[in-house]
Design goal:
alpha/beta
């Protein structure tokens, strides 16, 4: 089993329209609460069998005491903290303007960090529109320069949308101007949450992606791998396979990674499920013992897909899903499940996600 524990320690400077963990501005977790959290959590995590990671979120560099938080995590939970092979993701907005950024850069170098990752959505107007930060593009480019000056490599995560396919040559010029060391071309997931419903108008279609043929095999992007996904997971291809092969939800879930996700909020509320997509409250870390935390984790199973969002026994048969979703725009998804969730969502099939602020509320 693999386990990921996101601990929301601070808000994010952006509110990206595709962000399925509902990143956005928010309060910081007091450093004393973070220490108490780790002191209880780590003894429980060391008893788990499998790969375990702690991910401070949404944007730890926004925390007023970010350097102290990083030192504390590395001191109390080094075995669960990102290692030298990790691309540290950031908007760049927070870290660029910090007075103590030299201290943070020194810590990152000390931890073995070699590369930070910035997400780019397109040219300036499109990027700022999607991240909902008026100077997001300007900050991203300035931060890329700063990272190179501090002897870090810079990765760009290119979040595919239809406008990106139209502006590809100009986007490549942006990457060259910002000395991109490596780039990833990412097809956004679809999950049954409000933000991603609203993101669909930005999603690239199969026809949009054809503009990129023969043009993307650079900056480390694997063109063959990208188009293998485009061919396999456009809505028309997913529909055709479903008509021919059917769709056994339980069997498909068993094929997914054996991976469980948990979230701890700024108030130390402990949830089963990713940030913004909770399905069960497990308690509050402040009032739980390490033994109780361990038992709560052990009682859960993998929630990588399917039952992470739905009661599988309540899902309609795939024939009904296809009948209710006639072919429309041939959007492209990163996997068949994203396409399925889009169809289920369009039908109004209820999820098992807990109500509350975040993705369900459409933040």
């Amino acid at each position: 089993m693999e386990y990921t524990f996101e601990i929301t320690v601070a808000g994010c400077n952006a509110r990206c329209r595709h962000c399925y963990v509902s990143g956005g501005p928010g309060s910081s977790m007091p450093l004393s609460d973070y220490r108490a959290c780790l002191e209880k959590l780590v003894p429980a995590l060391t008893r788990l069998k499998g790969n375990v990671s702690i991910a401070p979120g949404h944007e730890p560099f926004n925390h007023e005491e970010a350097a102290a938080l990083m030192r504390m995590t590395h001191a109390l939970a080094p075995q669960f903290y990102p290692d030298a092979g990790y691309d540290w993701p950031t908007t760049g907005i927070a870290l660029k303007s910090r007075r103590d950024r030299a201290d943070i850069f020194a810590l990152l170098h000390g931890f073995g960090a070699k590369r930070l990752m910035l997400t780019l959505h397109g040219l300036e107007e499109c990027h700022n529109e999607i991240v909902r930060a008026p100077h997001g593009f300007e900050a991203l480019c300035a931060f890329a320069d700063l990272l190179h000056a501090e002897e870090f490599e810079v990765a760009f995560n290119l979040m595919l949308n239809h406008r990106m396919t139209e502006d590809w040559d100009a986007i490549c010029q942006v990457l060259e101007a910002n000395r991109c060391d490596v780039a990833y071309l990412t097809i956004p997931l679809y999950l049954p949450v409000a933000r991603l419903r609203k993101y669909e108008p930005y999603r690239a279609t199969y026809a949009d992606c054809q503009r990129l043929r023969g043009r993307i095999d650079r900056f480390g992007i694997d063109e063959a791998q990208f188009f293998a996904k485009v061919e396999a997971f456009n809505a028309a291809a997913v529909r055709a396979r479903a008509l021919q092969e059917g769709w056994d939800y339980a069997a498909r879930e068993r094929e997914k990674p054996d991976w469980a996700f948990f979230h701890i909020t700024e108030e130390l509320e402990f949830y089963y499920g990713n940030a913004g997509m909770h399905t069960k409250r497990l308690g509050n870390i402040a009032t739980m013992t390490s033994e109780e935390i361990y038992e709560a984790i052990q009682a859960q199973r993998a929630n990588y897909d399917y039952s992470a969002y739905y009661d599988l026994k309540q899902l309609p048969p795939i024939s009904a899903v296809l009948a209710a979703n006639p072919p429309q725009e041939n959007h492209v998804y990163p996997d068949a499940e994203s396409c399925l969730y889009r169809w289920l969502d369009a039908m109004g099939v209820p999820t098992i996600l807990l109500p509350g602020p975040g993705a369900l509320a459409g933040a």
